[in-house]
Design a protein that fits this description.
The chain contains 4 helices and 10 strands; from the N terminus they run ββαββαβααβββββ. It is mainly β.
Length: about 170
């Protein structure tokens, strides 16, 4: 990527794609699907690109303007394509960058992957984070039963320790 003064750097950040591979349906994910757009917008001015000599230059010095679009704003600038169904194809057609985020979750694992594509549709950067889903055991409680009979009669105290497996 060369220095291009007097130009804009446009990037489309699609909503998160969630891929559910659970077999029990016991995992639920609640997340803002526009979070990658918000973070990309906040940190766009700190973006850097390779200078071809082993170093990096800041994009905001190479371009007059860095514009970050989401699924609502992209159609204002580029209304000639359906970004919800073919975001990579539309980004290539309109010659701008594209950021894709996919969250895949199964019964025991969560994988978050974000990829950046250039204006030719070539993946130029990707990042992934994998977390194993753990089980948090709930501490079992033992119960004590106190049985009192009569005005001056007997008192019985029964201690019942839990003998069941811990709950998940």
């Amino acid at each position: 990527m060369g220095l291009a003064f007097g130009e804009t750097f446009d990037v489309y950040v699609s909503p998160i794609k969630f891929v559910d591979q659970t077999t029990t349906g016991a995992v639920s994910i609640n997340h803002d699907s526009e979070a990658p757009f918000h973070y990309s917008s906040m940190y766009a001015r700190t973006a850097k690109a390779s200078n071809g000599k082993g170093g990096y230059h800041e994009l905001h010095r190479a371009f007059d303007e860095i514009r970050v679009y989401n699924s609502n704003s992209i159609e204002i600038a580029y209304d000639n394509c359906d970004y919800l169904y073919t975001p990579l194809k539309c980004s290539v057609f309109n010659e701008h960058h594209y950021v894709e985020t996919t969250i895949t979750f199964s019964n025991d694992q969560l994988v978050i992957r974000t990829s950046l594509y250039n204006e030719n549709g070539t993946m130029i950067n990707t990042s992934a984070r994998t977390d194993k889903m753990g089980i948090q055991w709930i501490k079992q409680q033992e119960s004590t039963v106190i049985d009192t009979r009569g005005p001056l009669g007997s008192t019985t105290i029964i201690n019942k320790p839990k003998e069941e497996l811990p709950l998940k």
